[in-house]
């Protein structure tokens, strides 16, 4: 029996549109983001996927995405668990800055290091490594056991919290995962075996 784990990065947020470092700030979806989330629900509905539980962060853009997906597959009242462990990476002093302005302020090379290194955090913030250190224990203690029980699980979260999960699932190095781009509102469907190993992976891209 294959077990389904579906990961979805939230739809475009207002701060994505404005090219701002968002982190733990809490903007909602744009009109495009709403459309992306609805489209994700349609794709999953076309595959006749139904879930036993959903997980999301405490941030509204992920929760809104999750809610729209569940409405789209006819499961609006599904058990949904929100936890800070699934929040986006905290960008610290970069939070709220336009990415171009940040390059001007700190230098293009330094901002590139903060964004694209695995273990060097921006001032006051998290690296992808420290993000993974809070995401993965939660995944292993709360989410994975439900998948291994045979439940279909949806996780609607953020680019970097999902990178941490993908790194673990696919056995990627820090350098490999930092280069992985995740489009907004695109479901990644994993079929796992009884040990949590990937049997099949499908990215539901248009």
Automatic annotation (TrEMBL):
Question: Which reactions are catalysed by this chain?
Answer: (2R)-2-phosphoglycerate = (2R)-3-phosphoglycerate
SUPFAM superfamilies (UniProt xref): Phosphoglycerate mutase-like
What EC class is this? Answer: isomerase
- Which residues take part in binding substrate? 9-16, 22-23, 61, 88-91, 99, 115-116, 159-160
Please, one GO biological process term?
A: gluconeogenesis
Q: Which InterPro entries match?
A: His_Pase_superF_clade-1, His_PPase_superfam, PG/BPGM_mutase_AS, Phosphogly_mut1
GO molecular-function term, one example from the UniProt record: phosphoglycerate mutase activity
Q: What does this protein do?
A: Catalyzes the interconversion of 2-phosphoglycerate and 3-phosphoglycerate.
Per the record, the similarity remark reads: Belongs to the phosphoglycerate mutase family. BPG-dependent PGAM subfamily.
Its Enzyme Commission number(s) read 5.4.2.11
Its assembly, as annotated, is: Homodimer.
The positions annotated as site (Transition state stabilizer) read: 158
Annotated active site: 10 (tele-phosphohistidine intermediate), 88 (proton donor/acceptor)
- Among the Pfam families in the record, one is His_Phos_1
Superkingdom, taxonomy of origin: Bacteria
Q: Which NCBIfam families match?
A: pgm_1, PRK01295.1
Q: Which UniProt keywords apply?
A: Gluconeogenesis, Glycolysis, Isomerase
The protein's name in its UniProt record: 2,3-bisphosphoglycerate-dependent phosphoglycerate mutase
SMART domains referenced in this protein's UniProt entry, alphabetically: PGAM
Q: Pathway involvement?
A: Carbohydrate degradation; glycolysis; pyruvate from D-glyceraldehyde 3-phosphate: step 3/5
